[in-house]
């Protein structure tokens, strides 16, 4: 399930979007046909079947007739999506509506005047205003403005634990940092690595810093960075988070050789499932990953909890980091804004919500709570939903939130910190230079 939301941004995705800031709004007239048909670009993975149904439902609706428009869905191959979207947005055949990841993925389009500011539209539309969890709706925006409407499942980062290992060693899931450190000490004494970590892929390391900065300094620290204030990397919370990471590494929390263990190739999930590591900080897709690779473990021994509170920190234990969801945004050059916005409303519908749940997703819609019994794993789905529903803030994964030209060098610095090639102070200094 992580394929559509998580890893697009690295490699080709970053390169494709790095030069998007050179786009201009002129020459982009939207993909509207002469017959009132609007074009919608969607990431062409298996989950796009839900958007196909949504388009068909909308086109047959009274709302489409009233708005005098219909939607033509164009599925763009997953690996090509960022590059093809960028090219299309710079041409006369730009889509009217398009799938994106919020945050940094749309910042250049906003700066080029290519996005409809949906803030007032959502505020004045009961369906859109009350149709989604507030923290997820806000997470896809920029500078406090809404530029997208949630349209896929949520993917918060969760602290998973091996129930069997915890029971054998009489451990309870940690709610405070001191408890976590105490658990680490007991596990190491039993010669069990506290945490699995796919350091070879780098992005799993990022999750640690995301939560530590939030718990130490609160979500406003990264919010400043996300909105373009590079000096905010100098906030004391960032340095403290980096120092805490170094302490964990030096203390053996990730064992040895974690920098050569991957996530995408199944290395870290295997270490966790086989009991060689007791915990794993990972996106909610860890459940589906384990279900596919180690189904017995996923069904019987996989536990989950929130990332612990740090004593004296400014961040609420209910705050979440990760991938809030994916979003529909509207091209400012569309010839029929009313039809585009009418189409967005379907993403808040009961039918759409049920289809997401049947696909194994946990929707960001406010009507999902009573429907999650139909999920493949109702207990896990309800935990995720309540976690996000109660979250005062949901911080978008840093590599998706920052400008694309900053994402790769940022990850390089994260990796240098984790492999000991830079100190916490050097890490902060390097990040402050990223612009």
Automatic annotation (TrEMBL):
Pfam families with a match to the protein in the record: SBP_bac_1
Superkingdom, natural source: Bacteria
Name of this protein: Extracellular solute-binding protein
Species of provenance: Streptomyces triticiradicis
């Amino acid at each position: 399930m992580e394929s559509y939301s998580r890893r697009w941004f690295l490699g080709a995705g970053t390169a494709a979007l790095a030069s998007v800031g050179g786009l201009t709004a002129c020459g982009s007239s939207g993909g509207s046909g002469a017959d009132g048909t609007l074009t919608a670009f969607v990431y062409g993975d298996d989950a796009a079947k839900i958007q196909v149904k949504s388009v068909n439902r909308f086109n047959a609706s009274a709302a489409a007739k009233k708005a005098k428009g219909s939607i033509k869905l164009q599925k763009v191959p997953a690996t090509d999506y960022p590059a093809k979207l960028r090219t299309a947005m710079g041409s006369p055949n730009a889509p009217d509506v398009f799938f994106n990841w919020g945050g940094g993925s749309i910042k250049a389009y906003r700066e080029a005047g290519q996005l409809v500011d949906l803030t007032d539209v959502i505020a004045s539309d009961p369906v859109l205003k009350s149709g989604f969890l507030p923290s997820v709706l806000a997470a896809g925006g920029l500078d406090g403005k809404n530029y997208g409407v949630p349209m896929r499942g949520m993917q918060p980062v969760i602290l998973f634990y091996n129930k069997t290992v915890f029971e054998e060693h009489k451990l309870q899931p940690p709610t405070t940092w001191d408890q976590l450190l105490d658990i680490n000490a007991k596990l190491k004494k039993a010669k069990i690595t506290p945490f699995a970590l796919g350091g070879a892929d780098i992005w799993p390391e990022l999750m640690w810093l995301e939560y530590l900065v939030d718990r130490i300094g609160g979500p406003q620290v990264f919010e400043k960075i996300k909105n373009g204030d590079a000096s905010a990397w100098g906030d004391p919370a960032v340095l403290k988070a980096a120092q805490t990471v170094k302490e964990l590494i030096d203390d053996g929390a990730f064992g040895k050789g974690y920098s050569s263990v991957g996530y995408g190739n199944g290395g870290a999930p295997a270490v966790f499932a086989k009991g060689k590591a007791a915990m794993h900080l990972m996106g909610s897709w860890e459940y589906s990953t384990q279900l596919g690779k180690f189904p017995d473990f996923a069904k019987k021994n996989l536990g989950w909890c929130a990332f612990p509170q740090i004593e004296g920190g400014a961040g609420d234990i209910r705050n979440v980091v990760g991938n809030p969801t994916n979003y529909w945004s509207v091209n400012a050059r569309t010839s029929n804004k009313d039809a585009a916005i009418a189409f967005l409303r379907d993403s808040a519908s009961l039918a759409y919500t049920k289809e997401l749940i049947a696909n194994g997703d946990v929707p960001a819609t406010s009507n999902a709570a009573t429907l999650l019994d139909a999920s493949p794993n109702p207990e896990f789905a309800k935990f995720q939903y309540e976690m996000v529903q109660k979250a005062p803030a949901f911080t978008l994964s840093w590599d998706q939130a920052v400008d694309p030209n900053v994402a790769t060098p940022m990850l390089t610095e994260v990796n240098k910190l984790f492999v000991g090639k830079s100190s916490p102070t050097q890490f902060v200094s390097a990040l402050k230079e990223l612009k």
